Amino acid sequence: MLNLIKQSWFCGLLMAGFAILPCQEAKSQLLPQVWGTAGVKDEDISYGIGAKFFGFGVEIGTGKDGATGGDILKFISLPAVSPYVGVGYYSGDENFAYSAGVHFDVSSNIVLGAGYHSIRGINGQIGLKF
Fold first, then answer.
1. Rounded distance, CA 50 to CA 71, Å?
2. Per the confidence metrics, is the pTM higher than 0.85?
3. Chain centroid to CA 84
4. pLDDT digits over 86-129, tens only?
5. Contacts from 23-30 at CB under 8 Å and sequence distance 24+?
6. What is the rounded (10 degree) CA torsion for 117, 121, 122, 123?
7. Does residue 23 fall inside a structural domain?
8. Residues 6+ away with beta carbon under 8 Å from 62
9. Helices (H) and strands (E) in the chain, counts
10. Domains in the chain, number
């Protein structure tokens, strides 16, 4: 009987400890994250805009020799950082494009990023989370 009382006391104390742990509200991306990007490849300036929604993104832009097109991106959401990879289609001599990079949450509403795009080159990104 004494052993049962000890076990009950321990379980009650353990459950009370879990109940007072700080809880965070669930993070859900109901509104998209948007960004602008600028970069360089072979001394040509490139630029684009993008949006992320539920771990996927789209980005449209222009690059070397006026090549214009779009990409589909897949993000891996980690705390404060989101690496991504993508594939796209562009006009010009090269049609197939690939990209990779990372977005950093620098505040609750601001995102900074860096990446590489096979047509648009090395680029930096700045964005807003709504």
1. 9
2. no
3. 7
4. 999 999 888 999 999 999 999 989 999 999 999 999 999 999 98
5. 29/53, 29/54, 29/55
6. -80
7. no
8. 46, 47, 48, 68, 120
9. 1, 8
10. 1
Asked, for residue 1, whether it belongs to a domain, the answer is no
Q: In this structure, is residue 13 part of a structural domain? A: no
User: Positive or negative, the Cα torsion across 85, 61, 68, 114?
Assistant: negative
Parent domain of 95 = 33-129
pLDDT 10s digits, 15-50: 544 444 454 444 555 778 999 999 999 889 999 999
- Check which CATH number belongs to the domain holding 64 and give it: 2.40.160.20
Residue 52: phi and psi, rounded to 5, are -120, 135
* Residue 116 forms part of a structural domain: yes
- Radius of gyration (Cα) for the chain, nearest Å? 23
Q: What angle do CA 41, 44, 50 make, to 5 degrees?
A: 70
Tell me how far apart the alpha carbons of residues 61 and 59 are, in angstroms, rounded to a whole number.
7
Cα–Cα–Cα angle for 15, 20, 22, rounded to 5 degrees: 130
Are 9 and 3 a contacting pair, CB within 8 Å? no
